[in-house]
Amino acid sequence: MKLAMIGLGRMGGNMARRLMAAGHEIVAFDRDADAVAKLAAEGAIAATSLDDVRAKLEQPAHWWIMLPAGEITDATIDAIAAGAQPGEVVIDGGNSFYKDDIRRAKALKERGLDYVDVGTSGGVWGRERGYCMMIGGPEEVVARLDPVFAALAPGMGTIDRTQGRLDGQTDPRAEQGYIHAGPAGAGHFVKMVHNGIEYGLMQAYAEGFDILKGKASDKLPEDERYDLNLTDVAEVWRRGSVISSWLLDLIALGLAKDAKLEQFSGHVADSGEGRWTVDAAMEEAVPAHVLTTALFARYRSRVENTFGDKMLSAMRFGFGGHVEIPQ
Amino acid sequence: MKLAMIGLGRMGGNMARRLMAAGHEIVAFDRDADAVAKLAAEGAIAATSLDDVRAKLEQPAHWWIMLPAGEITDATIDAIAAGAQPGEVVIDGGNSFYKDDIRRAKALKERGLDYVDVGTSGGVWGRERGYCMMIGGPEEVVARLDPVFAALAPGMGTIDRTQGRLDGQTDPRAEQGYIHAGPAGAGHFVKMVHNGIEYGLMQAYAEGFDILKGKASDKLPEDERYDLNLTDVAEVWRRGSVISSWLLDLIALGLAKDAKLEQFSGHVADSGEGRWTVDAAMEEAVPAHVLTTALFARYRSRVENTFGDKMLSAMRFGFGGHVEIPQ
Amino acid sequence: MKLAMIGLGRMGGNMARRLMAAGHEIVAFDRDADAVAKLAAEGAIAATSLDDVRAKLEQPAHWWIMLPAGEITDATIDAIAAGAQPGEVVIDGGNSFYKDDIRRAKALKERGLDYVDVGTSGGVWGRERGYCMMIGGPEEVVARLDPVFAALAPGMGTIDRTQGRLDGQTDPRAEQGYIHAGPAGAGHFVKMVHNGIEYGLMQAYAEGFDILKGKASDKLPEDERYDLNLTDVAEVWRRGSVISSWLLDLIALGLAKDAKLEQFSGHVADSGEGRWTVDAAMEEAVPAHVLTTALFARYRSRVENTFGDKMLSAMRFGFGGHVEIPQ
Amino acid sequence: MKLAMIGLGRMGGNMARRLMAAGHEIVAFDRDADAVAKLAAEGAIAATSLDDVRAKLEQPAHWWIMLPAGEITDATIDAIAAGAQPGEVVIDGGNSFYKDDIRRAKALKERGLDYVDVGTSGGVWGRERGYCMMIGGPEEVVARLDPVFAALAPGMGTIDRTQGRLDGQTDPRAEQGYIHAGPAGAGHFVKMVHNGIEYGLMQAYAEGFDILKGKASDKLPEDERYDLNLTDVAEVWRRGSVISSWLLDLIALGLAKDAKLEQFSGHVADSGEGRWTVDAAMEEAVPAHVLTTALFARYRSRVENTFGDKMLSAMRFGFGGHVEIPQ
């Protein structure tokens, strides 16, 4: 089908390419004219403004928005809505907060427009492997867009089917790599929790490798020290172990290139999803120790010493002075 | 080669079968004569005592011990050592604490015997998929046993090779699913950390699904509630997402069979490796928030309310009474 | 001075009594006429409506609001503002979220009214001991209300002065038990963090006593078991130890009454402040492991087994089956 | 009574002084002859060797050992035991691991000697305030030493009595600041948990103040920023608030001297007790999230960036590259 792609950064550009490769027509727009020209050279229909995009689409127009931050996404949706005809559909494929989706869907509904939110995982590998998608929005609109989702998704590929999945109780799209999770916001909500889990998984591996590395310390008894080859440890765990995963594949790749990871500062950024996941846990009164502590580990990685650390020292000085026997 | 398998439980029995399928000869012994008879019917050489095992092996005898607990393993090793000829090799394939390996290796060395520790992952799936193995012990003994490890290991199979692995700096065995990690204890140490990571990964998924499930709560605003199909969520994450993993495959399998997991009590056991990993972190002064908190979540799953919980209530009563405005 | 007290629950009633004891005049109002009558019998000026309150105050009127929940507080403030004359002052002494204070102060300012937020600690003991107060709002209004705060505060009492406090760099009111923390919301913000710390302190004691109690377990080696008298342990720590505190006094009191704390269910409630503190930590990217985990421990105390626990069991079943040697 | 004090560092020296002030006779010994001479000038009986100490004591001799580390304590106990007459008593007032106490008590018992372990809190303030003591050992020996403990303890002082303590069910010594906790090791065990709690309390305050301090950040919306006077906040919380404590007194003192705590590096040491407390929690399968995470915060304070942090960055690079929309 014919679809606008608004935002041609690495994610938007690659999605457009994957869609075109599957036979869809893409009307491409970005504030950066070079990005538009580049994609047009690969077969996209270039547009010079949102109005121009609309002129080049068929009604009802479908807009896939792939922008880096919430404010720009909101502004773009407002601009599209201002000139929209009833029945047009806005699809936000970025990383929006699911409560923003709920708000947007309501506002658009009042104008006769539909809104679909798509949480997407797969990163820079998605163009080749396909994108795992979690979708929120009205049933019939999601159904109408199925060819688009099917083209973006990885499909069943070589991954084994899960035994015992029951027809009628499960969504066959899940096996193709996308689901219709529920109404507005449900897609980004599931994606948000996905990223929260991702933080926890990453931190679990990170701590494990820290313990392996620390085992070479000369503070340990000599016969309890091991100078382990972490590149090989990561590799062997990929093969038949209970903790094999795609993240472990990436660890193995990273260590194969640079066994000491010296190119990385270790100041680890965090995106909104981690914080939102903790917020959700608090709203639901669900204890989420691991996901939260994984987020805090990232905060901690970005500072050297906190005021709180100094306060600990100050207390220790206060009660212990320079005593022979520390408290 | 010819090898004794001592302990024919599910793990030992299946390993023996996998070894025989690869052409190795197994002298099988277990306290349970039925288990011995069963394996003999599949081609193993039955033995009725440790002495009988030795009589049926060639010198230097190689003993693979696959027993459930440390004390039995220790007693068995002592019994083997008592009658051993110099050069015999004891291989512990169970879940021993690595400091026990160090102690045993020293004691056996004094008698001219060798000791190899093998941490094994793969569980009930290992017979078919192969076992991921982490090996500690003397270089030349591990090399001599290579045909055994190669037969037990999964081999390269269909898992992609990691790009950039350098010859000479990495161990080619890692790509086959086993490594020689270092001297005595190194195998079980790496396996121990593996299990520590496993705890963290499992808890990360568990918390994420708890947050997904809690999102249906009628305590939340109506338009922020989602009644998500967790079976489908697990399935879709297997396909192209950043958090795909073998554990997630198992989750998808479990949810496909029983979407509410009602057959499980949720009282989660923990094996020694989780605790030992935390001990190791403390010996190295490595912060291991996630791995530790994952262990504590299991402890907490096994009790209803702690004395500490009641103490919190007692304090709240103490300072707040039945005040209108709670503290 | 003359002051309205709106809300005569345990907190509001006791504050009114403490203020009257110090010579202030209280115009008392509550939806519950009995509460008004009771306080009038103790010397307060009874009022039957907000308008009646205003009629009995002098201009500019000062309203101290002491209501249990945010929504009622908001509605009450709106009702007061609707009939207010310029210069009137609303003081919220409840447990409002500091961002609500900021919003309210702005809205009232537009009508020429002032707003003061007062975070209060002391609970049911406050009438006798005095209330520790953290105040936000305009400098001159807080100064004008100083006699009120001074009367409510504990004063210097028998608590030692902190050596080294410098005149000019510190607020002398702090030594009397109240501070002007900053502009609108600052009072409740400091109170909120206070409660966050309280959660952490409480949980630290709770865990410690859990470990003491668990030491009697017959799963431990016999000579490593201690059947400790926790009532005495709490008492002795009150006297000269580094961890003496008012919360510990309450623990000692609770254990003296009921050494097993059997009257308490251990289902521990949490108020908004704990969650808001974690939110603040996330907004600031400050790692707050202890405060957050203390909150999560309360969530966990209120459920028996989580879905996540069952998922852990399901995974363990998935990879381990009934194997002899658990993974 | 007459008592040897072995180890005249700040703790041992001050204890000796407090004992002498109460009329006890101290035979003083230290490897540092100057320390002995200094205490002799204050009234102690100087000794030049352990044998000399024994010669100057009456039988059965009582030895109070106050040494900084476990190994030296063990060596000293061995040396005393080697020349001891039956009935002599060794008292370890240092920070020994309680399992070492159990071992030592057994070994000494075989020689007809008694062993008492005393966990002591109070730090540099103890000489003046008295020492809070938790005692393990045989009932009759602890009873015989009561005058010594009574002299070291703070006594009831100005601290309020806990209402409801029942005669017969509680130990009256607790109100004087010392308890007989149980058999060998029980004293140090209770002291160990005390220190574990101390870690948790300290970290709770540290995190709270970190959040207060972070509230001035210019990354926050302007009307949500507060530049709080932390010196005053600490002071006001000492007065009538639920979180008042001796540690908070120390915080107030520290901030009064140096509001930015600039003299402290924030690299926070940890003593054995924190680790042992976590070990005990693991042996008992008690979840101790707060105490453990407080320990880990100290580990983290001592390193800049961990290998694990870098691994997180490596994974993020692996799946996200330089994508416009981060995962």
Please tell me about this protein's structure.
The structure is a homotetramer of 327-residue chains. The first copy, chain A, has 327 residues and is α/β, with parallel strands linked by helices. In chain A, 49% of the residues lie in helices and 12% in strands. Chain A is built from 14 helices and eight strands. An eight-stranded mixed β-sheet of chain A has the order 3-2-1-4-5-6-7-8, sandwiched between helices. In chain A, strand 5, helix 5 (98-110) and strand 6 (114-121) form a beta-alpha-beta unit. In chain A, helix 9 (186-214) packs across helix 13 (289-301) and helix 10 packs antiparallel against helix 11. Chain A is globular. Chain A starts with a strand and ends in a 7-residue tail after the last helix. Residues 322-327 of chain A have low confidence and may be disordered. Chains A and B meet through helix 5, strand 7, strand 8, helix 9 and helix 10 of A and helix 5, strand 7, strand 8, helix 9 and helix 10 of B.
Please tell me what the overall shape of chain A is: globular
Helix share of residues of chain A? 40-55%
Largest interface: A-B, 109 and 109 residues
Q: How does the major sheet of chain A shape up?
A: 8 strands, mixed
Question: How much β-strand is present in the residues of chain A?
Answer: 5-15%
**Total beta-strand segments of chain A:** 8
Quote the average pLDDT of chain A.
93
Spell out the helices and strands of chain A N to C.
EHEHEHEHEHEHEHHEHHHHHH
Annotation field: number of helices of chain A: 14
Q: So what's the oligomer here?
A: homotetramer
How do the strands line up in the largest sheet of chain A? 3-2-1-4-5-6-7-8
Structural class of chain A: alpha/beta
